[in-house]
Amino acid sequence: MYGVWTPEQVRAAEEPVLARTPEGALMRRAARGVAQVALAELERRTGGIAGRRVVVLAGAGNNGGDGLWAGYELRRRGVAVTAVLLSPDKAHPAGLAALGRQKGRVVTAVEHGVSAVDRADLVLDAIVGTGARGGLRPGAATLAAAAATARVPVLAVDTPSGVDPLTGVAADEAVRAARTVTFGARKPVHVLAAPRCGPVTLVDIGLGPELPPAPITVLEDADVAARWPVPGPFDDKYTQGVVGIAAGSRTYPGAAVLASGAAALATSGMVRYAGSAADEVRAAWPEIVATDTVGEAGRVQAWVVGPGLGTDDAGAQTLADVLDAGLPVLADADAVTLLGQHAELRERARETPVLVTPHAGEFGRIAELTDDRVDSARRAAADLGLTVLLKGNATIVAAPDGRVLVHPAGSAWLATAGSGDVLSGVAGALLAAGLDPWWAGGCAALVHARAAEIGAGAQEGPGSPVPASHVQRALPAAIRQVREAR
Ligand SMILES: NC(=O)C1=CN([C@@H]2O[C@H](COP(=O)(O)OP(=O)(O)OC[C@H]3O[C@@H](n4cnc5c(N)ncnc54)[C@H](OP(=O)(O)O)[C@@H]3O)[C@@H](O)[C@H]2O)[C@@H](O)CC1
Ligand SMILES: Nc1ncnc2c1ncn2[C@@H]1O[C@H](COP(=O)(O)OP(=O)(O)O)[C@@H](O)[C@H]1O
Ligand SMILES: [K+]
To answer: In 10 A of CB 69, how many CB atoms?
Structure first.
């Protein structure tokens, strides 16, 4: 696992380090890191370094300073460097002087910048970093657009400009980077807007001892592997945790089949199904014990409730029954809507460990969703007294005690009907196996996204759509792949 820190925390950590290091040393170190990655990119993309063309888009602050110093390093390796100064009066003086000493070219007119970008092998986006306020200004936006139109790869310095470093919200004209080099610590933008950043390289500038505990955690395969339940020699079908699925309806039997099948594939042991799609579930999954109601279902150690359930009185009654069992509960889809509608159900949900898994629309029914998705999820978890998994390209899991994790999906193939039902089955199975809701949500999100990647590559090589039933089918391969990281 690794941590992510807010720009404010990173700035605070920089202060003591700046105070005890010679002036400019931190920036030089950051710039050398940028140059190293830029050189590797040039070599990889063009097969050489000397004479290759790099354009530095340099803004008014220290981010621009990083870019100019990186340009200096690249000039020393024989790269043809052009710096475009977006605020010529405010360009970082030492960085600009250094580039000048190495005979780097400097332009200030946007149109000259655009023609340099058109012919570049690589663009360094040093327009703005953690000091960004609002979207890009017109000159910067024109240059970012020129790089995109000319399909010149962009290496973002610290953060892709035009994307909010804290929330990951991107302005229309924001930079889309092929790679990003960041300094000291990863920031929220790198996981909340991962597709805008590309692969992120972290350059150590000695902030480690100054950073507080990370406010955001990102799980890696080894973390999930260490917690994924596997049967031991003395286990039987009951000892590993039985999960009950209260989902689906006559109108939506598919949700029941997707969720309960996913639960059956996620862990060993047993799955029970309770609801009006019992026939469909039995037909698809003979190993699942299916009954018509929660009352008839027999003992379970956790419940999944909601997918395809309906939001009528019967649905509300099912949710109430499940919450009253006093067991961990995964509440998805219609169960989220019902929680939004009924204050008494929200009160009952405080009394038992609950993981709710809304998409953005459903989230809005239980709490306020702002541009700051992490903050929204954290507040909702604390206010409602339950663990919130907010779906999206970056999945956020926030526990009422303040723990937050983000899982950036490797692709967007999961944006397909029914994939959320699969997630609920996986997370429910993990709850039944004894994981706490935060870990269950985090482990399920990682394996779910991996199953989509595997499913999307299963037909004719990577890159084909993957319907939810194929995501479900890819769960065993995803679990196997993740567990290999032990
Ligand atoms: N501290 C350190 O030791 C180290 C810091 N490091 C580096 O410093 C970076 C932070 O530097 P920072 O604080 O100077 O802010 P920064 O991101 O350059 O932006 C502020 C400037 O940009 C401008 N601007 C603002 N919004 C804008 C917009 N939307 N569109 C366009 N322009 C905009 C704004 O201009 P103004 O409003 O004044 O005209 C202001 O001058 C950090 O990301 C890292 O790269 C590394 O070297 C490691 C050591
Ligand atoms: N653009 C996207 N990129 C990656 N994952 C996505 C994207 N959009 C949705 N997802 C994921 O797909 C799943 C969709 O769940 P949900 O909206 O509940 O769908 P359904 O109700 O059809 O099952 C969630 O796990 C969500 O995180
Ligand atoms: K930048």
So the answer is: 28
